[in-house]
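Escalation from tier 1.

The customer reports that the assembly of two entities below gives different structure tokens on two consecutive runs. Tier 1 could not reproduce it. I'm attaching the input and our single run for tier 2 to review.
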Amino acid sequence: EDQVTQSPEALRLQEGESSSLNCSYTVSGLRGLFWYRQDPGKGPEFLFTLYSAGEEKEKERLKATLTKKESFLHITAPKPEDSATYLCAADFSGGYQKVTFGIGTKLQVIP
Amino acid sequence: SQTIHQWPATLVQPVGSPLSLECTVEGTSNPNLYWYRQAAGRGLQLLFYSVGIGQISSEVPQNLSASRPQDRQFILSSKKLLLSDSGFYLCAWSGGLNTGELFFGEGSRLTVL
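Tier 1 run:
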């Protein structure tokens, strides 16, 4: 069964303390890897799509990377407003119905 | 630009009562539409998706149903709610097939008592 596993479940950082979130997946024809940000009580907000190993995408303090078995979301010099839950999702075999979401990493950035 | 609206934002319903959640998308035509449920400690679970008016696919057998009466309108319904239907329901749209680039509404928090 295709699965998406995110770690850690929760992460607490001091403002300015860089770190990375991990998303690992069991491979069954990965067609795309997606990152979302979700604020409490809100719907997820789309951040990035990665299609092939070695690909990188950046947005402000966030950079997403992809290997053959996992993806990382790097957060450089985070600010309190980066606090949110970050979700990873994978499209394994094509078709919108095949997108599988991880449980997410809850990030808290302390001033 | 495209926007998605979902309502109501919160509701508390007794067991056995009916349910209707609505979602509309603006600024795009013929979107793919989705209903997800998010439970604490679990990933987003796809409930229904639709590629066009009247076309509904169900992913999980359950007490819920979905309808798409218009191109940009998606409705989630139940005739009789169960306690297990409590959760955070999210409507989303995407612009094409084979994509995980989903754009979500603000969500509807349902509590069944």
